[in-house]
Design a protein that fits this description.
The structure holds four protein chains of four kinds.
Chain A lengths: L1 H19 L5 H27 L12 E8 L4 E7 L1 H20 L8 H20 L3 H10 L1 H11 L4 H34 L6 H4 L6 H18 L8 H8 L2 H26 L1 H28 L3 H22 L2 H32 L10 H4 L1 H14 L6 H16 L1 H25 L15 H19 L2 H17 L1 H4 L2 H5 L4 H8 L7
Chain B lengths: L5 H21 L3 H26 L3 H30 L11
Helix pairs in contact in B: 1-2, 2-3
Chain D lengths: L1 H20 L3 H21 L3 H26 L3 H11 L5 H20 L12 H10 L2 H22 L18
Helix pairs in contact in D: 1-2, 2-3
Classes of the chains: A mainly alpha, B mainly alpha, C mainly alpha, D mainly alpha.
Chain lengths: ~525, ~100, ~625, ~180
C-alpha cells in the first residue's frame, strides 16, 4: 500500500489544507508541512529499504514494489503502480523538493492560502503518480492531474503577466499531451488487434511489434509529449514565460519536478516502447539537445530578468538530459538521471533564491540589482554556491551528471560530445554574469534588505548539503538507478548492440593483457 | 388526364422557391421578408404535393399539411414579434426594418 | 605517517568551512588563527611526510590512499584517492609551504579589510583544491581540483567586488580557463575510451602497450590536455587573463597567480609525461607554445607601468620556460624551475605588495621611486627575488634552474637551436624588465611618503622566501659546475630521465657564459636607460613609432583587442539580439494568425439577417455546385 | 387541362415575382393571395382537391388575412411606400439574384437530368388523406398540434401590450422612465 499511500496521502493533505484554509490562514501551511514531512519520511524509508533489501538486484520485469488491480476492465485499464530504482529516486526528489516548495511559500502566499496548498499538494500527488504508474492510461491520468493544479497555481498566484503565461503553458503541454494520448491509443489498438488482448499495461505493451514506419510516428507522438515538458529546444518557449510569472513554489515544482516527468517519460516509455524508432531518431534528438544546450545558454546570458535567466538555464541543462537519453548507454543514462536530480536541486534552489530577493525588493531586473553581497552576504554566499552548481563545478551535483552524459555520448558520437562540451563554457558565462549583476558591483540603488532568515537558511542549507552530497557521494544514487536502467537497456538490447563495439578502441584486449603488468613505470 | 411530367412541376416549384429566396435576400422590410418566406414554404409544399401525385399516394399531401401548420405557427409568432417591436421601439420610420 | 596524507587537504577544507560559516562571528583574530593555522598544520604534515619520503620511500616510490569510491557507473569508476610520488610531493610541498608564508603575510596585508575572514576562507579553499589537484590519483579528481582552483582564482580576483572592473577580470579569468578546461574534458573522454580508466598511473603504465609512438589518439588527447594546461597556465593563446587577474589582492597574486595555480598546467603535462612521450608532435607543440609565450610575455613585460602587471607578464614568461622544458623532454628541469619560480615569484609579489601598501595602494611604479632606504628589508628581498628572476649567474637559484632549461632547449631530446635562441633571448628580456622595475621602484628620488611600515608578519615571509630564492638552487647544479643532481635524482622515480647530452661540454659552457653575459648586459642597459639617462626612453616614446610600440606592448601585444572582436563581441551581440528568443516568434505568430482570421470573419457577423441568408445560400450553392460537377 | 395547368403555373410565378417587387405591402399581400389561388388550381388539376381547398381556406383565407390585419394595425401610410422605394432601388438586387439564378439553374439541371415520368393522374380523395394522416402520421399530427398551441400562446404572449422595458444592453443614460 506504500505506493498508493504516496499519492493518496498528498491528495488527502491537499483537501484538508483547503478545508482548513476556510477559517485559518496558518492551518494550511502547517498541515501541508506535516503531510510533506510524512511523505518524505515514507519515501526515504522506501529508498533505504530498497538499498538494503533485494532492490539492487532486480531482474528485468521485476519491480521492487507493485500494486495491481483492475480499474476499468472492459477497456483493459488497470490500476498498476510499481517502482524500481529510477522511480524511487524521482519520488524522493519529489518529496524533498515538495517540502522545500511548501517551506518557501510560507510567507510569500497570503491570499487564498488553503487553495494554494491544495493545488501545490495535488501537483505533487500527480507527479508522484506519474513516476509510479505503469499503466499507460493511468500514467496519462496522472500526467493531466499534475497539469491542472499547476495551471491554477500560476494563474492565480503568479505575477503581472500571468494569464498569458498560463494559457501558453497550458496550450503547449496540453496539446503535446494529446499527441502522446494519440500514440498511446494507437499502441493500445495495435497491440490489441495483434494479440486480441486489449490492454494499457506497460509491461505487456513492451514487446508490441509495430511496423517501423508506424512506430516512428508513434514515437514522435511520445517525443512531442515528453519533449515539450522537458523542454527540448524548438518547443521550449512556454517555459521562460511560465517560470517568470509563476510564484516561487510554482517555479520550484515546475523546474524541479514537472520537467523531470518529461525526462522520466523518455527513459521509461519512449525508448523501451520504440527502441528501433528511437534509435533512428537519436541523432536528430541529440542535435536538438546540443542546440538546446548552447542556444538556451546564449539566450539566458542576454536576459535581464533573473527568473527568465534561470528558466533558460533549465532549458540548457535539459539539453544534456536529452543527449543522455538518446545516447542510450549505461553511462549516459546514469548521467541523465544524475542531471535530473541535480538540476532539480540546483535550479530549484536558484528559483527559491530569486523568489526571496523578489519578495524583499519587488524587482527581478538585474539592471536594477547589484551589490547585494554587501547587504546580504548570506544570500550571496548561497547564491554563489547554487550558481556554481549550475555551471557544473566538480564537487557539486551537476558536474557528475554532465560528465557522465558526455562520456556516454562520446561513445556514440565524438563530434556531439565535443560540441556539447562547449556548454561548459556557455554555462560559465551566464552563471558568472548572473552573480556579477546581482551580488557584485556597486549597490547603485542602495537596496536595503534583511539577510536570510532562519527559515530561508535552513532551506538553502538543505539544498547545499544535498548538492554537495550528490557531488561527492553520487554513488548512492548511481547504485540505486543502475539496475533499473540496465533492465530498460536490456529491453532494447537487440537494437543497441554493436554500437559499443564499433567505437571502442580495438586494442582493448591488448590493454587488458598488459594491465596485469601494471606496477609503476619502467 | 393531365400530361405533365414531374420534372415540370418541380421546376415550377423551384422557380417559385427561388423567387421567394430572392425576396428574402433583397428586401429590407421584415414584413416583406416574412411574406417571401411564405412563398418559399408554399413552393416547398408544392413540390411535395407534385411528388405525392407522381406516386399516386397521400403522403405528399400530408407533408403539405404539416408545412401549412408550420407556416401558420411561424406567421403567428412572427407577426406578434413585429407588433411588439413596433410598439416598443417607437421609431419615426413606419416599419421596423432589419437592415 | 603516510596514512595521514588525507589530512593534508582536509585541514584547508576544514578551515574553509569554519571561516565560511562562522567567519563573521569569530572576529578577525580567530579567523587569522584558523586561516593560517590550517595551512600551517597542512604544511607541517606535508613536510613530515616529505622527510619520511626522502628517508624511507614507500614501495615503488609511490603511495596511494583511497578514501571512497566517487563515481562508479558501468565500466567507469573513479575514486577519491590520493597518490603521492616525488612529483606530487614537490608540488604539495610548494603549495603548503609557500602557501603558509603567504597566509601569514596576508594577516597583515588584509588586516584592515572588511572581508578578512572571507579572504582567508577563499585562500584555504584554494589550498585545499590545489592539493586535490596535485595529489589526485585519477584525472577526474585532478579535474575537480583544477576547477576548484579556477573557482578560487575567480573569487579572489573579484574579491573587491564593488568595482565592476574586478568582476570583469575575475570572469575573464574563469571563462578563459574554462575554455581550456572544456578541451581538457574532451581529452579525458578520449583517454577514458582508450584505456577504460582515468587512473593516472594505469594510463601511464598501459599507454606504451596500447599506443605506438605517434598514435593519432595519443596526439589528439595530449593536445587536448595541452589545451587545458594552456588555459590554466596562461600560455599562448589563452594568456590574456593573467595580467588582468592582478586586480585581486596581492597575496592572491602571489599564491595563485604566480606560485601555484598557474603552474597546474606544468604539473598536468609533467604528470602525463608517459603519453606525451608517445606523441612527439604534442611535445613539439608544448615546446613551441612555451617558447612563443616566453617571448610574447617578455616583450609585453618591458612596457608595463603597473608593478604587478610586470610581475604577471614575467610569470607568464617563466611558465613559458617550464613548458619549454617539458616540451624538449627535460621533465625534471621544468619541475625544478617551477619550484624555484614559486619561491622567487611569491617573494617578488609579496615584496611588491609591501611596496603597494607603503605607497597608498599605488601600483604605478613610475609614481614610486627611492624606496630602497625607506624599506630596507623589502628592498633587499625584492632585489634577491629580482636577481633570481633575472638569473644572475652563480649566486641565485634562478640561474641554476633557468640555465638548465636553456641548455636542454638545445641539447634535450626535442631540443633545437631555434628554441635555444628563443630561450636565450627571453632570458635577456627578462633581465631587462626585471631590473627596469627594480631601478624605477627603489632608486631615484622618493616621490611619495611611506604610508605603512611593514611589521614582522611581512618581513618573516619575505626573508624566508628570499632564503629559498637564493639557495634553493644549490640542490641541482649543472654538469659544468659541480654536477649536483639531488633534485633530479629525487624526481627520477616519477619523471623520465633526460636522455640528452649529445652536445659537448664546451657548448654547454658557451651557453651558460653567453646567458650570464647577456643577462648582465641587459641589467646594465636597464640601469642606463631607466636610472642614468631616462631622457632616451622619453624621447623614444614621444615619437610616433615609439608611442605606438609602447601602446602595443602595454596592451600585451593586442591579444585582448583581437579576442574582443573575434569572440566576445559576436557572442554578446548574438545573444543580445536574440534576447526575445526568435523561436518564440513562431509561437507568437500562431495566435496572431488566429487573431487575423478572427478579424477576417468578424465582418461576417453583422446582425443583418439578409446577409446571413446570402451566406447560407452561398454555402448551398457551393455544395450543390460540387454535387453537379461530380 | 394541361393548358390550364400551365396558365395557373404562370400566374403563380408572376404573382410571386410581383409580391417580391411591390413597394406597397397591401399590394404585395394581394398578389400573394393570387399566387396562392393559382397554386390551389394546380393542386386541383394534379388530383389533390383536399389540398387545394386547404390552400385556399388556410393559406389565402387565414394566414394572409392575418397579415392584412397586422398591416392595418400598424397603420402604415405613404411614408412606408416611399421608404420601400428607396430601399429597393439599391444595388442590393444583383448579387442575391445572380446567386439564386445560378442555384436555380443548377437545381433545374439536376431535376432535368433525373428520371422523368408523367403524373399518375389518380385523384386522391380527402378520405384517403385523412386516413393516412390519422394512422401513419399520427405522431406528426400530435406534434403539429403542439406546435400550433405553442404558436398561439407565443403569439398571444408576444403581442400583448406591455410596459415599456428596454433591454439592459440597449439602455442609455437617462433613458430610464
Amino acid at each position: 500500500m506504500t505506493l498508493t499511500f504516496l499519492f493518496a496521502w498528498l491528495i488527502l493533505g491537499g483537501l484538508l489544507a483547503w478545508l482548513a484554509g476556510r477559517w485559518n490562514k496558518e492551518a494550511p501551511r502547517w498541515i501541508s508541512l506535516g503531510f510533506m514531512i510524512v511523505h518524505l519520511i515514507v519515501s526515504v524509508r522506501l529508498w533505504i529499504s530498497f538499498l538494503t533489501n533485494k532492490g539492487l538486484t532486480l531482474a528485468q520485469g521485476e519491480w521492487f514494489l507493485m500494486e495491481k488491480s483492475p480499474w476499468i476492465p472492459q477497456w483493459g485499464i488497470q490500476y498498476f503502480l510499481a517502482v524500481d530504482g529510477l522511480s524511487i529516486l524521482l519520488i524522493v526528489l519529489t518529496s524533498f523538493l515538495g517540502l522545500l516548495a511548501v517551506a518557501c511559500s510560507w510567507k510569500g502566499i497570503q491570499e487564498r492560502v488553503g487553495f494554494f496548498f491544495f493545488n501545490l499538494l495535488w501537483i505533487l500527488a500527480g507527479i508522484s503518480g506519474v513516476f509510479m504508474a505503469l499503466d499507460l492510461f493511468l500514467f496519462y491520468f496522472f500526467w493531466e492531474i499534475m497539469l491542472i493544479p499547476l495551471y491554477f497555481l500560476i494563474g492565480i498566484w503568479g505575477h503581472s503577466n500571468r494569464i498569458y503565461a498560463t494559457i501558453k503553458f497550458f496550450i503547449f503541454t496540453q496539446a503535446s499531451g494529446l499527441f502522446m494520448l494519440i500514440s498511446i491509443l494507437a499502441l493500445y489498438f495495435i497491440h490489441g488487434s495483434q494479440t486480441g488482448h486489449y490492454t494499457f499495461d506497460y509491461v505487456e505493451l513492451l514487446g508490441t511489434q509495430v511496423s517501423p514506419k508506424i512506430a516512428f510516428w508513434l514515437m514522435l507522438g511520445f517525443f512531442l509529449g515528453f519533449g515539450v515538458k522537458l523542454p527540448a529546444v524548438p518547443v521550449h518557449t512556454w517555459l521562460p514565460d511560465a517560470h517568470t510569472e509563476a510564484p516561487t513554489a510554482g517555479s520550484v515544482v515546475l523546474a524541479g519536478l514537472v520537467l523531470k516527468a518529461g525526462a522520466y517519460g523518455f527513459i521509461r516509455f519512449l525508448m523501451p516502447l520504440f527502441p528501433q524508432a528511437g534509435k533512428e531518431f537519436a541523432m536528430v534528438a541529440m542535435i536538438l539537445g546540443i542546440i538546446g544546450i548552447i542556444y538556451a545558454a546564449m539566450v539566458a546570458f542576454a536576459q535581464n530578468d533573473l527568473k527568465r535567466l534561470v528558466a533558460y538555464t533549465s532549458v540548457s541543462h535539459m539539453g544534456f538530459v536529452l543527449l543522455g537519453v538518446f545516447a542510450w548507454n549505461q553511462l549516459a543514462l546514469q548521467g541523465a538521471v544524475m542531471i535530473i536530480l541535480s538540476h532539480g536541486l540546483s535550479t530549484g534552489a536558484l528559483f527559491i533564491l530569486v523568489g526571496d530577493i523578489y519578495d524583499r525588493l519587488h524587482t527581478r531586473d538585474m539592471d536594477k540589482l547589484g551589490g547585494l553581497w554587501s547587504v546580504t552576504p548570506r544570500l550571496g554566499g548561497f547564491g554563489m554556491v547554487f550558481a556554481l552548481a549550475s555551471l557544473g563545478l566538480p564537487g557539486l551535483a551537476n558536474f557528475v551528471g554532465e560528465f557522465l552524459v558526455l562520456l556516454g555520448v562520446y561513445q556514440v558520437s565524438v563530434p556531439i560530445a565535443a560540441l556539447a562540451t562547449l556548454g561548459f563554457i556557455a554555462s560559465t558565462i551566464y552563471s558568472l554574469w548572473m552573480i556579477q549583476k546581482t551580488f557584485f558591483g556597486k549597490n547603485v540603488n542602495e537596496w536595503k534588505m534583511p539577510d536570510a532568515t532562519p527559515r530561508e537558511i535552513s532551506i538553502y542549507a538543505a539544498l547545499v548539503v544535498a548538492l554537495l552530497w550528490l557531488g561527492l557521494f553520487p554513488n548512492t544514487v548511481l547504485r540505486t538507478s543502475r539496475q533499473a536502467l540496465k533492465n530498460l537497456q536490456q529491453i532494447t538490447s537487440q537494437y543497441f548492440q554493436g554500437s559499443k563495439e564499433a567505437t571502442t578502441n580495438p586494442s582493448v584486449e591488448e590493454l587488458n593483457k598488459s594491465r596485469s603488468n601494471y606496477g609503476g613505470l619502467e | 388526364m393531365i400530361a405533365i411530367s414531374l420534372n415540370t412541376g418541380l421546376i415550377i416549384a423551384s422557380i417559385m422557391f427561388f423567387t421567394g429566396l430572392i425576396g428574402v435576400m433583397i428586401r429590407k422590410n421584415i414584413m416583406f421578408m416574412l411574406i417571401s418566406i411564405e412563398i418559399m414554404l408554399n413552393a416547398a409544399g408544392l413540390a411535395f404535393v407534385f411528388a405525392g401525385a407522381q406516386h399516386g399516394q397521400a403522403d405528399g399531401q400530408i407533408m403539405f399539411l404539416f408545412i401549412l401548420t408550420t407556416a401558420a405557427a411561424e406567421v403567428a409568432v412572427g407577426l406578434a414579434l413585429i407588433i411588439q417591436f413596433y410598439q416598443n421601439l417607437k421609431r419615426s420610420i413606419p416599419m421596423l426594418p432589419i437592415i | 605517517m603516510y596514512d595521514l596524507l588525507w589530512l593534508v587537504p582536509t585541514f584547508p577544507f576544514l578551515g574553509f568551512l569554519i571561516l565560511a560559516i562562522f567567519g563573521k562571528k569569530i572576529g578577525k583574530k580567530l579567523s587569522a588563527v584558523v586561516g593560517v593555522g590550517s595551512i600551517g598544520l597542512s604544511a607541517l604534515i606535508t613536510i613530515l611526510i616529505g622527510i619520511q619520503f626522502l628517508t624511507n620511500p614507500p614501495e615503488g616510490h609511490a603511495f596511494v590512499q583511497t578514501l571512497w569510491t566517487w563515481i562508479a557507473a558501468d565500466d567507469f569508476k573513479v575514486n577519491i584517492a590520493f597518490h603521492l610520488d616525488a612529483l606530487s610531493m614537490v608540488f604539495a610541498f610548494v603549495v603548503t609551504f609557500v602557501g603558509f608564508w603567504i597566509h601569514l603575510y596576508s594577516t597583515e596585508y588584509m588586516a584592515d579589510d572588511e572581508g578578512f575572514s572571507r579572504f582567508f576562507a577563499y585562500m584555504n579553499l584554494f589550498v585545499g583544491a590545489m592539493l586535490m589537484l596535485v595529489m589526485g590519483d585519477n584525472l577526474l579528481l585532478l579535474y575537480l581540483g583544477w576547477e576548484g582552483v579556477g573557482l578560487c582564482s575567480y573569487l579572489l580576483i573579484g574579491f573587491w567586488y564593488r568595482d565592476p572592473a574586478n568582476g570583469y577580470a575575475a570572469r575573464k579569468a574563469f571563462i578563459v580557463t574554462r575554455v581550456g578546461d572544456a578541451a581538457m574534458a574532451v581529452g579525458l573522454f578520449m583517454l577514458f575510451y582508450s584505456f577504460k580508466s582515468l587512473n593516472i598511473q594505469e594510463i601511464l603504465s598501459v599507454a606504451p602497450h596500447v599506443w605506438s609512438p605517434g598514435n593519432k589518439l595519443a596526439v589528439a588527447s595530449t593536445l587536448l590536455l595541452l589545451g587545458g594546461a594552456v588555459g590554466k597556465s596562461a600560455q599562448l593563446p589563452l594568456q590574456v587573463w593573467l595580467p588582468d587577474a592582478m586586480a585581486g589582492p596581492t597575496p592572491t597574486s602571489a599564491l595563485i597567480h604566480a606560485a601555484t595555480m598557474v603552474t597546474a598546467g606544468v604539473y598536468l603535462i609533467a604528470r602525463m609525461n608517459g603519453i606525451y612521450l608517445l606523441a612527439p608532435l604534442s611535445m613539439t607543440a608544448v615546446a613551441i607554445v612555451g617558447a612563443a609565450t616566453l617571448l610574447v610575455a617578455g616583450f609585453a613585460g618591458m612596457a608595463q607601468t603597473d608593478i604587478k602587471r610586470v610581475l604577471a607578464y614575467s610569470t607568464v614568461s617563466q611558465i613559458g620556460y617550464m613548458f619549454l622544458a617539458l616540451g624538449v623532454g627535460a621533465w625534471s628541469a621544468g619541475v625544478f624551475h617551477f619550484m624555484i619560480h614559486a619561491f622567487f615569484k611569491a617573494l617578488l609579489f609579496l615584496a611588491a605588495g609591501a611596496i603597494i601598501l607603503a605607497q597608498h595602494h599605488e601600483q604605478n611604479m613610475f609614481k614610486m621611486g627611492g624606496l630602497a632606504k625607506a624599506l630596507p628589508v623589502t628592498f633587499w628581498t625584492f632585489l634577491i627575488g629580482s636577481a633570481s628572476l633575472a638569473a644572475l649567474p652563480l649566486i641565485t637559484a634562478g640561474f641554476y634552474s633557468k640555465d638548465a632549461i636553456i641548455w636542454y632547449a638545445w641539447s634535450g631530446p626535442n631540443g633545437s637551436i631555434y628554441l635555444w635562441m628563443a630561450a636565450v633571448f627571453g632570458a635577456m628580456v627578462t633581465a631587462f624588465y626585471t631590473f627596469r622595475m627594480v631601478f624605477v621602484t627603489f632608486f631615484g628620488e622618493q616621490k611619495m611618503e611611506i604610508s605603512h611600515y611593514p611589521t614582522w608578519r611581512v618581513h618573516i615571509p619575505l626573508i624566508a622566501l628570499a632564503f629559498f630564492a637564493l639557495f634553493g638552487g644549490f640542490i641541482e647544479l649543472p654538469g659544468t659546475l659541480g654536477h649536483l643532481t639531488l633534485f633530479s635524482d629525487f624526481m627520477k622515480s616519477a619523471l623520465p630521465v633526460v636522455e640528452g647530452g649529445h652536445h659537448e661540454v664546451s657548448l654547454e659552457i658557451f651557453s651558460q657564459v653567453l646567458t650570464a653575459v647577456l643577462a648582465l648586459v641587459s641589467i646594465f642597459v636597464a640601469y642606463y636607460l631607466y636610472l642614468k639617462n631616462m631622457q632616451i626612453v622619453t624621447n623614444f616614446t614621444s615619437t610616433k613609432f615609439g608611442h605606438g610600440l609602447q601602446q602595443f606592448l602595454l596592451s600585451g601585444l593586442g591579444f585582448d583587442w583581437l579576442y574582443e572582436r573575434l569572440f566576445i563581441r559576436p557572442y554578446v551581440w548574438l545573444s543580445r539580439t536574440n534576447k526575445r528568443d526568435f523561436i518564440d516568434f513562431f509561437y507568437v505568430f500562431l495566435p496572431w494568425l488566429a487573431r487575423q482570421f478572427h478579424y477576417l470573419f468578424k465582418y461576417t457577423q453583422t446582425g443583418k439577417v439578409r446577409r446571413y441568408v446570402v451566406g447560407i445560400v452561398f454555402g448551398v450553392l457551393v455544395s450543390i455546385t460540387i454535387v453537379v460537377i461530380l | 387541362m394541361t393548358i390550364l395547368f400551365y396558365i395557373a403555373a404562370l400566374i403563380a410565378i408572376v404573382a410571386s415575382i410581383m409580391v417580391v417587387t411591390r413597394t406597397n405591402i397591401i399590394h404585395a399581400l394581394l398578389y400573394m393571395v393570387i399566387s396562392l389561388l393559382a397554386t390551389a388550381v394546380m393542386f386541383f388539376l394534379i388530383g389533390a382537391p383536399f389540398i387545394a381547398a386547404m390552400e385556399i381556406i388556410i393559406y389565402a383565407g387565414a394566414i394572409m388575412v392575418l397579415f392584412v390585419f397586422v398591416v392595418m394595425m400598424l397603420n402604415l401610410g405613404k411614408q412606408a411606400v416611399e421608404q420601400e422605394k428607396r430601399w429597393l432601388s439599391t444595388e442590393g438586387w444583383y448579387f442575391p439574384s445572380l446567386l439564386s439564378l445560378i442555384l436555380l439553374l443548377e437545381i433545374g439541371y439536376l431535376i432535368v437530368s433525373g428520371q422523368t415520368a408523367p403524373f399518375n393522374g389518380r385523384q386522391i380523395p380527402p378520405a384517403e388523406v385523412g386516413k393516412e394522416l390519422y394512422s401513419t402520421y399520427l405522431i406528426g399530427v400530435e406534434l403539429a398540434a403542439i406546435l400550433l398551441m405553442a404558436g398561439i400562446i407565443g403569439a398571444y404572449h408576444l403581442a400583448r401590450r406591455k410596459k415599456y422595458v428596454v433591454h439592459r444592453f440597449l439602455k442609455t443614460e437617462g433613458a430610464e422612465q
